Amino acid sequence: MISQVSGRLATRDVERVEITTGGGVTYEVAIPLGTFESLPPRGEPVTLFTHLVVRDDEWSLYGFSSARERAVFRRLLAATGFKFVTKLAGANEVPVRETQARGSATFKVNRDGTEMRYTLKGNKIRNVVMAHIHVGGATVNGPITVHLLPAPVTGPKPRFAVKGVITGANLEGPLAGMTLFELVAAMRQNNTYVNVHTNDGVAPDNTGPGDFPGGEIRGQIRPVGRAARPDPPPGGGQQNGGQQGGGGSGGGPVTPPYYP
Hints:
Order of helices and strands: EEEHEEHEEEEEEHEEE
Radius of gyration: 23 Å
Helix content: 10-25%
Distance between the termini: 17 Å
Low-confidence stretches: 234-260
Mean pLDDT: 86
Number of domains: 2
Shape: elongated
Strand order of the largest sheet: 3-2-1-4-5
Structural class: mainly beta
Number of strands: 14
């Protein structure tokens, strides 16, 4: 596979660059913002650590300023398409809350492993002020790591539905400064939960449904489908044709790795 591209920087912008090698071959390479900020001026020599992704409908070459950044990207690719779900109820709160409110949430990693899209829904619930992903098991109250609700829910109807996108930049608390892969890993280990908080704005707290600031409905996030399967052992068999060597930093025929 193409593991490195070296040459002169022909063009550059925040999402992709073109590099012309000594043999006259020009590669178009997609890059993250961190790599863009480390690039030299146009016309100067540059080397990027690369990874080639081949799908049925496109070939994409991704470039990074360091082998470590590329390794993180490869880990994220392994989570492509992972899906997670949860059901929310007062019985899951610690301590248990007496409420008829119910909810659900779904999460799915995009095909580049860079984003996780989610849908969060609640029914028979009022005065919703916050919702988060927390890190922790089912019997503990853990720290917040992602905010899921952009603003408090208002209106006469006792239900809500929100959609959003999570990236590594959204992580805080114990996962602050880490990548989306670390959140995915915690979710696969059943070590995260969704918590929906309510507050009627009148003292005292915890007077009943619609007034549980610490959380009214909650649910442990669990992996489904491929995300729930154990990881293959290192050096295990290839899938979908696997990876075959070839190529290098210059031109020539390459048999790339395949990712669904």
